[in-house]
Structures are given as structure tokens and as C-alpha cells.
Design goal:
By secondary structure, this protein is of the alpha+beta class. 55% of the residues lie in helices and 17% in strands. It has four helices and three strands. The termini are far apart.
Length: 110
């Protein structure tokens, strides 16, 4: 394996992926608490969100939040580099998720 590549079965990468998934779940809870009272569609998206600490399709150091709802006619993904997650707090991450989701919804509603 070349330097810098990712082995998704490595115990180190599995632990890190679990840590990043937990951070994303905490941030989702914070964002949902703030946004769900304001908009039923946002509430639905937060309730159906799924998290991957290591996206198997990307095979890189990225964590993914996926939102799915019938009105989207598909899935909306937010992808975060691990090093970016290390640089921000859970509250900052929640704000980022919230802003991005609301912007996507705004564009979808046009």
C-alpha cells in the first residue's frame, strides 16, 4: 500500500471513522434541535439522516451525511474531510450542516 492511501479495514481507520461519525451525529442533533421546529421538511430530513464516518464509495478520509426524503426524489449528501472536522467545534459543524441543508432546500423549492 502506498504512503497516504487509506485501508478501510485498518483498525486505526475504523476507530477514526467511528469518532468522526459520532461527531457528525452530535452536530446533526444540535442542528435538528435548532431547525426542526421551524420547518416540517427540514425536520423530516434530519430524522432520516444517515452518517458514514468513512464513505466506502469514496475510499478516502471523508465522512458523509446523507439526507433522504420522498420530496427530494433522491438523496442529498454532505461530505466532510476528516482534517476539516478536526478543525471545527461541534457547534460550528452543526451550523455548517444547517446552512448547507437550508440552502439546498431553498434551491429545491424554486
Amino acid at each position: 500500500m502506498k504512503h497516504g492511501s487509506l485501508n478501510p479495514r485498518s483498525p486505526l481507520h475504523v476507530r477514526k471513522a467511528g469518532r468522526y461519525a459520532a461527531r457528525l451525529r452530535r452536530a446533526l442533533l444540535l442542528a435538528a434541535k435548532r431547525d426542526s421546529r421551524k420547518d416540517e421538511e427540514l425536520k423530516t430530513l434530519y430524522e432520516t439522516a444517515s452518517v458514514e464516518g468513512l464513505d466506502p464509495a469514496l475510499k478516502s478520509r471523508k465522512a458523509t451525511v446523507s439526507f433522504r426524503a420522498p420530496f427530494l426524489r433522491g438523496t442529498l449528501h454532505q461530505i466532510f474531510d476528516w482534517h476539516s472536522l478536526d478543525a471545527i467545534s461541534d457547534h460550528e459543524l452543526a451550523s455548517s450542516i444547517s446552512w448547507s441543508l437550508k440552502e439546498s432546500m431553498r434551491r429545491w423549492r424554486r
